[in-house]
Every structure is written in C-alpha cells, then in structure tokens.
Design a protein that fits this description.
Residues 1-11 have a biased composition (Low complexity). The structure is a single chain. This protein is 7% helix and 26% strand. By secondary structure, it is mainly beta. The chain folds into 2 domains: 8-223, Protocatechuate 3,4-Dioxygenase, subunit A, CATH 2.60.130.10; 250-288, Carbohydrate-binding module superfamily 5/12 (Seminal Fluid Protein  PDC-109 (Domain B)). Strands 2, 6, 9, 10 and 11 form a 5-stranded mixed beta sheet that branches. A hairpin with a 6-residue loop joins strand 7 (169-175) and strand 8 (182-187). It is globular, with a radius of gyration of 20 Å.
C-alpha cells in the first residue's frame, strides 16, 4: 500500500571504493558511453549495449531468454545507502496515483553465471521521487517482485529526481531462492553528474530510450550463482543485510542483535555507526553460536 505521508529529504549515499570486476565487451562499451566515445546507436538514437548491438548487427530479434557470449562477470554490487526499508509491497508499478515525473519502464532478465535464466528471483526496488526525496514514512516508490519462468521482470516507475551528491539512480536488491543478496544500483546514460558521482559505475548503466512522453530502459542482471529454475521464490522478502542491527542506536551490554544471518551479543555500551557492524568490531560484539 502506498502512503502520502511526508518524505524525507535525500542525502548522499556516501562514498565507497570502486568495485573490482573483470572487463567484458559490454563493460568496455558502457565505459565508452560514459566517457562520451562514439558507439553504435540503434534506430531510435539510444545507446546500443550488448543485447541491442547483437540484435541490430544481426538484423534479427534476439531469443526471449538472454545468453552471455561476451564473458560478462556477475553484476557488480554497490552500497545500500541510508534509505532502504524492508517489507516493501509486492507490486511491479511503483507510481502512486497523480505522482509527478517522467514515466519509466525498466525491463530485462536475471540469469546465472552460466547464462541460464533464473525464475523466482526477488527484486526489491527503491528510489527517490521526482523531487529527489525518499519516502521514509511509507512506501512510495518502493516495491518488490519476482522474476517469471523466463527470468524476466518489468518495473513501472518514474525517472528519479536529483539530490545533492548523487547522479540519477535506482536501488535494487536481487536474490535467487536460497542464495546471497546482491545489492546494487542502476544508472542512466548521458547524465552530467555521472562524472562527479563517486559511486557511479558504468557497468551498471541501463540502456534508455524515449518512448512517447516517457522512457523505456533495459538491464540484465547476472547473479553469481549457477543458473537453473528456482524451486520457490524467497518469501518473505529478505531482511536488510544488517538484520536487526542499525546505525545511530544506543546499545548496552547484553543487547542481542542479528547481522548477516548471525546473532551477536553486545559486550560494551556504545552508539552504533557505519563501519562498526558487529562482524567488524569484536570488542563491541561477540558472535553467538
């Protein structure tokens, strides 16, 4: 259910180290796009990434399931940022009635490292509204869904607004049934702030084109798991990686929390902060069996 409660002003998600991953033809193409180099364009004038380039060069339509013939590594991860909320609604359309903004449809596939489409994958999306604010009181522009039998997904939302310190982006968590959670972000080509955002990664650029008064985007996720149909979707949706542990909270000796699927006992009173996650500070937290 959506909420019309006030939103919180967005703040930068914070700097972070650039992810390390191999270089594929798709990665090189996206890097060239970010740098402004000349790259192939499809008929609509938008950037031709790996799947679109294959379609246009061959003069035919690609099969409905993706295949990775260019040695792509799994989709790189990125930090969660301060605005994730668990328990988002199950829905593919994030736009509240009457909400302003340029309509955007994002579609694609999720597949494993062996190029087999993954069904039942949890995709949890969240983003800023047209004014660059995240709804922390309700679930505006938040929602999760599951991939279908072919590994396909479709998200209906708007182009997110800008806020200080960041370029335009959409957050997402992806989890194949019983597998680890991938937390990452999707980016828009041609954005001036791509060159100044410390978190921006050209490997996470969507392919975006105009569609009437809105936009259409495509992106294929590659999870670091063996491909194959999942038995059952992750249900309920996975909690945030921090579990019950949160930043900015005053903990006292004897408090118990969960983090990353493990339980921890607080050893010393302290106020938690980023970087002091239980696994990283054994002086403050002891892992319990």
């Amino acid at each position: 259910m959506t909420s019309d409660t006030p939103t919180s002003p967005a703040a930068p998600d914070g700097p972070g180290p650039a992810p390390e991953h191999g270089v594929s033809r798709k990665t090189l193409l996206r890097a060239a796009v970010a740098a402004g180099a000349a790259v192939p364009l499809i008929a609509t004038g938008s950037i031709a990434l790996a799947r679109d380039a294959a379609r246009t060069s061959a003069g035919r339509t690609l099969p409905p399931t993706p295949f990775c013939d260019d040695g792509d590594d799994p989709t790189p991860d990125q930090m969660e940022g301060p605005y994730f909320k668990p328990n988002s609604p199950l829905r593919t359309d994030l736009v509240p009635a009457g909400a302003p903004g340029t309509r955007l449809t994002v579609s694609g596939y999720v597949f494993g490292r062996n190029c087999v489409p993954l069904s039942g994958v949890l995709l949890d999306f969240w983003q800023a509204d047209d004014a660059g604010a995240y709804d922390m009181a309700g679930y505006r522009f938040r929602g999760h869904q599951f991939t279908g039998a072919t590994g396909a997904f479709t998200l209906r939302t708007i182009v997110p607004g800008l806020y200080p310190g960041r370029t335009r982006h959409i957050h997402v968590k992806a989890q194949a049934p019983g597998e680890p959670v991938l937390t990452t972000q999707l980016y828009f080509p041609g954005e001036p702030r791509n060159s100044t955002d410390a978190l921006f990664d050209p490997a996470l650029l969507m392919n975006v084109r105009g569609a009437g008064g809105g936009k259409e985007a495509t992106f294929d996720f590659v999870l670091d798991v063996d491909g194959g149909p999942g038995p059952d979707p992750t249900d309920p949706p996975t909690e945030p990686p921090g579990g019950t542990w949160t930043t900015g909270r005053a903990y006292t000796a004897g408090d118990r929390v969960t983090y990353g699927g493990s339980a921890y006992l607080c050893l010393q009173a302290h106020t938690s902060m980023a970087g002091w996650e239980p696994p990283h500070v054994p002086a403050l937290w002891r892992r319990e069996p």
